[in-house]
Amino acid sequence: TIQTTAKNHAQVAPALVKVRLAWDGSDGNTEGGVLRPTIPKDCTPAFEKLMTSCWHQDPSQRPSLKEIQSQLDSIHPTKGSMIDNLVNMLEKYSQNLEGIVSERTKELAAEKEKVEELVCRMLPKKIVDDLKVGKNIKAESFDEVTIFFSDIVGFTRICSQSTPLQVVDMLNDLYTLFDNIIDDFDVYKVETIGDAYMVVSGLPVRNGDKHAGEIASMALHMLSAITSHRIRHLPHERLQLRIGIHSGPVVAGVVGTKMPRYCLFGDTVNISSRMESGGFALRIHMSDTTAEILRRLGGYHIEVRGERDVKGKGRMITYWLNGKDGFAMPLPTSDMRASESQHEFK
Predict the structure, then answer these.
(1) What is the pLDDT of residues 265-302, one digit of tens each?
(2) What is the pLDDT of residues 78-92, one digit of tens each?
(3) Within its chain, how far is the Cα of 249 from the centroid?
């Protein structure tokens, strides 16, 4: 028959490449030359008996479709009609789908929360909330805020004794310490540039006169923490933190679209920087404006430094912040401070 078929199709297929049986018996069991499927080992005896009867050599001995259905119902009974069973299956699928959707929704909410937390590390939460609802963020004027600046006296010398990786590790350890402290106060970390650390209170959410007290209390905690902080690769070196504080008006706004920053502008920023650069190591130097607010708040230990020249502002009376009522944490002593000759005044 195969040869006749090939001859009949010779005109259509001039070269018959290969002729092979569609089912050559390579799979399954062969009993007496008759091919039979392999029965799985976990098959129940009832199913096995039904299957073997279905492929009986004598067709008359094979069960009809009704008999097969009847035996299947007895082996695996199902309640209700086919439609009922189909509805039940759809209900189970729907419940399973609802569970999957609920799980995926929770995962999406968790990822969204992580993204929002990351964005809030770059911008104030109030600004982030306004951006989420589509508000246009414009620059805003603030009548009075308090700005904190700090740097490290002798930073250049320490860098000359360190590799670049060691400098990065040193600043990361220091700023991680500071970041943990500011979480306890109503302040916003503006930026870090090299060894300079800048924080502000009183914006973008105004807090009355509390801004000066928040910054002053935060500065005392930082000064206390630095007394026990050590550099990993220079354990005998003490970081000489120098702090400056000033209160006054500023303008603040988001600058840029890629890596946007919440920046402050105004003379208050410059004077705060001058308070820091004109101060001493391990001391908190502040302007008369900040000192006056702290006096109104009460409880802060203020010492007059005296009148001195401040670049761009002329003569100003400045003050030292030495402590606060109820503040029991240790503060640096005079013997821990670097000598005046080691300072670089600007």
Answers:
(1) 999 999 999 999 999 999 999 999 999 999 999 999 99
(2) 666 666 777 777 777
(3) 33
The SS3 call for residue 209 is coil
Can you say how many angstroms the Cα of residue 268 is from the centroid of all Cα atoms in its chain?
A: 32
- Residue 189 near residue 181, CB atoms below 8 Å: no
- Please say whether the beta carbons of 215 and 201 come within 8 A: yes
Task: Provide the sign of the torsion angle of the four alpha carbons 153, 159, 161, 165, taken in this order.
Answer: positive
What is the distance between the alpha carbons of residues 254 and 261, in angstroms, rounded to a whole number? Answer: 5
Two tokens, residue 24: 């050559």
Q: Which residue has the higher pLDDT, 126 or 141?
A: 141
- 192 CB contacts (<8 Å, ≥6 apart)? 171, 175, 198
Q: Per residue in 212-221, is it b (16+ CB within 10 Å) or e — as a string?
A: bbbbbbbbbb
Closest by CA to 333, choosing from 234, 243, 223, 232, is: 223
Token code pair at residue 191? 């930026």
Tokens 């303008």 found at: 251
Whether 276 and 243 have beta carbons less than 8 Å apart is answered as yes
Q: Which amino acid is at 163?
A: T
Which helix (H) or strand (E) element contains residue 182?
Answer: helix 164-182
What's the first-to-final CA gap in the chain, in angstroms? 107
Q: Does residue 164 have a cis bond before it (omega within 30 degrees)?
A: no
Looking up tokens 């040869």, which residue turns up? 3
* Residue in 303, 292, 289, 291 with CA at minimum distance from that of residue 334: 303
Say if residues 126 and 184 touch (Cβ distance below 8 Å): no
Distance CA 210, CA 151 (A): 24
**Cα(314)–Cα(276) distance, integer angstroms:** 16
- Looking at residue 13, its pLDDT comes to 45
Inter-axis angle of helices 210-228 and 164-182, to 10 degrees? 130
Contact 302/320 with Cβ under 8 angstroms? yes
Note the Cα 62 to chain centre separation in Å.
68
Q: Amino acid identity of 23?
A: W
